Each structure stands twice: as C-alpha cells, then as structure tokens.
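Protocol step 4 of 5: obtain the predicted structure for the target chain.
Materials: sequence only (see below). No template structures provided, no constraints applied. The aim of this step is simply to have a reference model before the mutagenesis design in step 5. Sequence pasted as it appears in the construct record:
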Amino acid sequence: MKCEELIAKTDVNQDETEFVKQVAKETIHFLSQQKIPFTPANYRDWFLTICKALKNKHLLTPNNVLALHEHQKSTPETMSSEDLEKLADDLYAINDHSKRSLEKFQKNIEKHNGYLHESVDAIKSHDNKKIEDMKQKVARLEKENEKLKKEIEENRKKLIVIEKAFKKQEKEAEIDQLTQVLNRNSLEKYVPLIDNSDLPYSLIVIDIDNFKKVNDTFGHIAGDKVLQEFGEILRTYVRKDTKVYRYGGEEFLIFLMNTNIDGAKKLAERLKEVIEHHSIVLEDGENIRVSASFGVTQKHDDENFIEVLQRADKALYEAKKKGKNRVEVID
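Step 4 output (structure tokens):
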C-alpha cells in the first residue's frame, strides 16, 4: 500500500498498525530533533517522507531523510503506472463505444431514408394505416437517434477529461514542484533541441549564496520557503517565453533566446537587485534576506550546451570568489 493511502486509511490491519506506529514515532522524533514546527501540514509532509524511507529500507539518518525529502519536493507526483493504464483502458473503451454508436447512427440514417420513401409511396396510395405505421417507426428511430447523440456527446466530454489528465501529467513531469520552474528532466529534453538549432542564446547560471547556512540556522522548512520565493522572483522578472530551470539544489539556469550577452547581463543585474532587497517571512514571523551570485555567457558558433554551461559556471565561480552577491560575465 502507498504511504499516501496509508496515512488516510482508518481500517488498517495489525501489521499496518505497527508500521504506522513506527513511522509516527520516527516522524515525531525527527521533527523534534530538527526543530521543525509541529503543524499538521509538516507532520503529514515528513510522515510521508519517513514512511517511504522505511518502506525502501533506507537508514534513517538526518542527512538521508533530508535528502529524500528534498528529492520528493523536486520530483512531481506523477501518476502511477496503474493510473496511466486505467486512463489508456478508458480511452480505448470510449473509442470503441463511440465507433459502435456512430456505426449504429449511420444505419439509422439509412433506415430513416428508407422510411421516407415508404411514406411517400403510402401517401400516394392513400394507405392511412401504412402512413401511421411509418410515423411510429420514424418516431422510434428519432428517439433512438437522440439517445445515440447523447452517448456520443458524453463520450466526447469523457475524452476531453482524459486529454486534460494526460496534458496535466505531461506538464507536471517537467515542473519542479517546490519552485514551479522547469526541472532537470525538462532541461534534458530541451538541450538536444537547442544543440540541433542555429539559434543564438545567452545563458545565466544562478546560485543562492550561503544556502546551507540558511538550512543550518533556520531549518529546512525555511530553506524550502527561500527556494519557493526565489523561484517566484525568477518567474516574475523574466519574459513568459524565457525558460527557467532548477538545475540543482539551489542552482538555477536561465536561457535567453536571441539575446546577446549585454541583454543577459542587464537581466542578471536586475535579478540580483530584486533578490537582495526581497524580504522572506518565515513561519515564526522572522524576516530574512538572501543574495545570489550570477555567471553570464553567450553561445558562440559551433558550440554545444555543455561548452556554454562550462563557461557560465566559470563566471559563477568568479562571482563567488570575488565575494558573492555579484554578476560576472565571460564571453
């Protein structure tokens, strides 16, 4: 049974009861040890993390639990293979049902045409009994056609729901759930496209300064809050068509298509100013601020993404070495 189902289930068996007790005990101990506020949301969040750790027989050291929690935060909750299989089965069933309904509808139209011809003949021969019989047949046929129309419309609506579910699944698989920017999986899909095109672009690599100190001083809940608001700033201050990725723990990439290095530097400087003056309110009401370092470069002819990234990383290293909270450019 999944941990998400286990936490909501009320009629657990003896083995499940003992397991839930163990997870609850470890969760309370961990929250206390890490000084994480004991709220219902935090309890559920860390209960699921520790539940999955125990199910997968991970050693419950603080570092292991924190790493697993970070992985869960950055990994979208995708549908299980069973859910996807059910969606596919529903899709095939609806398609088959729609096909049969349309075939029947087509046959009914042919019947309707036949009845019309018979009705014309009956009218010409003044056969009132036959005319009445034709009226009843046409009425029954129209009633059946109305039913088929409703079935076809219901199937159309079901197909729309399934299509939305697939699109949602596809989108969530490429979004970092904590920061709401694109994730590493999405980047790996994008890189071959960018390498196979001749389009010019600039690249900004960003790293939050002293992020480990934030986690160590204020706790990992505060660290998550910083990442969430950092992602929101990046999404707010770039164009809608600009791709922003969470590349690692506190490292981000920004692709600026058809933008030269001067334009990229201006954006990096603006983001640096916004970030260092942005106040983040923690759960306990305390306000903190963070800064970030930026490495900026642009793609040259015949270069691939890795070469561009390596140069941007060098620029980022220079920014860190020169005191952090700054923008460095290497062309």
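Step 4 remarks: The chain is about 65% helix and 10% strand. The two ends are 54 Å apart (CA to CA).
Proceed to step 5.
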